[in-house]
TrEMBL record:
Organism: Microbulbifer harenosus
PANTHER family: TRANSPORTER
The protein, known as: Sodium-dependent transporter
Location of the protein in the cell: Membrane
Major location category of this protein: membrane
Transmembrane feature ranges: 12-35, 41-65, 86-117, 137-159, 171-189, 216-238, 250-271, 305-330, 351-375, 395-415, 441-467
InterPro entries for the chain: Na/ntran_symport, SNS_sf, YocR/YhdH-like
Coiled coil segments of this chain: none
């Protein structure tokens, strides 16, 4: 048997670590882009409704599963499903999903790291040229950065839950908040910034349609790190005296506030760069925004604050994204580590090494899917078009399996583990939650319309991506 379970040292430590997981590239870039293209304030409203009415109860369910069992996702599902072996499947899905998402997220983070270093080296002008991104992602440097990134992440993870994950979050998250606010304040002083703010905040309800609603929901779900076993694993490190509902609310609120604030950074920057811009023409992808568009915007600042100033702002931004991605990666890689330790009795060190080898190989394959290796660049044909290995991982795990995992969590918690047990775990450490309207809502929603909504998103994605 392994030693006593590790725990987060304090409630705030848990909240910062979980918020560190939730706050990622999704918040800093994907959210502002989606909001801009899909109705500004109207999108914000729809998004916030999803976060608090749909995703928050799912987060509570994941945390409760983890804390009750004090196990990784595989162990948690197994322990609470007894002999019903079919219910072991969601546990395995909650293992493989974070594993694969980590691989593709690592590759993007490697690019962020590479850009950050180049800016420090004084190369912002080069970064802002159209061809640079393609050159960079196909250069050997990517593999060096991958090794550096993995060394940092696994270094943090090797120190354990309290001294590694929690300490990193407690140090990095406050830096992230302060830098984000500082950047926003700076950008707001720039010319035409408020054209961007208006565009961001004034609701355009005409833009809201079924597709936008589905996008808002998927974005909210991903942003809160749900469906990836992360909250089950982090829940398993929560102390019994801490409140699950209270902590989950704090995490959801922090995550949403950071996403909202990031909009106040990105939008004014875009409009400062070009006040006539039609945001509908912006690329949908976060990568397009981060690596192709933003460097140009930062460079344009040199007319007001000089090249050094522009580079400093750009470096600050890339550092911000890097920190956000780092704390997310730490959380997602902790999931398979927990599984190898709980299910296979491995030591933390051995689990980390085993995973690092496999993840390195898969990340290299992902990194080579942009032209370095032809067979990876044209890996499969889906819905009549060529997809790379990187695309395949993204479509399969991020787009498709995520909502499915969420759906399975809801059904499992309410109908297999049972409502009464779930309710009881929610009130451990928070006796005041029992009998409140929120408790009744969470209990009802998880057993009824939340799984239906997740199912619809799942079906919609399958139809869109595979046919
Ligand atoms: N919440 C993260 C984001 O918004 C998603 C994520 C979590 C990605 C953990 C990877 C690992 O970017």
């Amino acid at each position: 048997m392994s030693a006593a379970r590790e725990h987060f040292g304090s409630r705030i430590g848990f909240i910062l670590a979980a918020a560190g997981s939730a706050v990622g590239i999704g918040n800093l870039v994907a959210f502002p882009v989606a909001a801009t293209k899909s109705g500004g304030g109207a999108f914000l409203l729809v998004y916030a409704l999803f976060v608090f009415l749909i995703c928050l109860p799912v987060m509570m369910a994941e945390l409760a599963l983890g804390r009750k069992t004090e196990k990784d996702p595989v162990g948690a599902y197994r322990q609470l499903s007894g002999s019903a072996r079919l219910w072991h499947i969601p546990g395995w899905l909650a293992l493989i999903t974070p594993f694969m998402i980590a691989v593709f997220y690592m590759v993007v983070t490697v690019w962020v790291l590479g850009y950050m270093v180049e800016i420090f080296k004084g190369n912002l002008t080069r970064l802002a040229t159209e061809a640079y991104f393609g050159e960079f992602i196909n250069s050997k440097a990517v593999f060096i950065y991958l090794i550096v990134l993995m060394a940092i992440i696994n270094g943090v993870l090797s120190l354990g839950v309290k001294d590694g994950i929690e300490r990193a979050a407690k140090t990095l998250m406050p830096i992230l908040f302060v830098m984000l606010v500082a950047l926003v304040l700076f950008v707001l002083t720039q010319k035409n910034a408020f054209v961007g703010v208006n565009y961001y905040l004034i609701p355009d309800f005409a833009k809201i349609n079924a597709e936008v609603v589905s996008k808002a929901m998927a974005q909210a779900f991903f942003s809160l790190s749900l469906g990836m076993g992360i909250m089950i694993t982090y829940g398993s490190y929560m102390k019994k005296q801490d409140s699950i509902p209270g902590s989950a609310k704090a995490v959801a609120l922090t995550d949403t506030l950071v996403a909202f604030t990031a909009g106040l950074l990105i939008l004014p920057s875009i409009f400062h760069f070009n006040p006539q811009i039609d945001p509908a023409t912006l690329s949908d992808s976060s990568a397009g925004m981060i690596f192709l568009f933003l460097p140009k915007i930062f460079l344009s600042l040199q007319s007001t604050i000089g090249y050094f100033g522009a580079s400093a702002v750009a470096a600050a931004f890339f550092f911000l994204v890097f920190v956000a991605a780092l704390t997310s990666l730490v959380s997602i890689i902790e999931v398979p580590i927990a599984t190898l330790r709980d299910e296979r009795g491995m030591s933390r060190k051995k689990a980390i090494t085993t995973l690092a080898v496999v993840q390195f190989i898969l990340a290299v394959l992902c990194a080579m899917s942009f032209g370095m290796a032809d067979w990876l660049t044209h890996f499969v044909q889906i819905a009549g078009s060529d997809k790379s290995f990187f695309d395949l991982v993204e479509i399969l795990f991020y787009d498709t399996i995520l909502p499915l995992n969420g759906l399975l969590v809801c059904i499992f918690v309410i109908y297999k583990w049972k409502r009464a047990n779930f309710d009881q775990e929610l009130t451990v450490g928070d006796s005041g939650f029992a009998g409140t309207l929120s408790q009744k809502y969470v209990n009802f929603a998880l057993g009824t319309f939340i799984p239906v909504i997740l199912l619809l998103i799942f079906i919609n994605t399958v139809a869109l991506k595979f046919f």
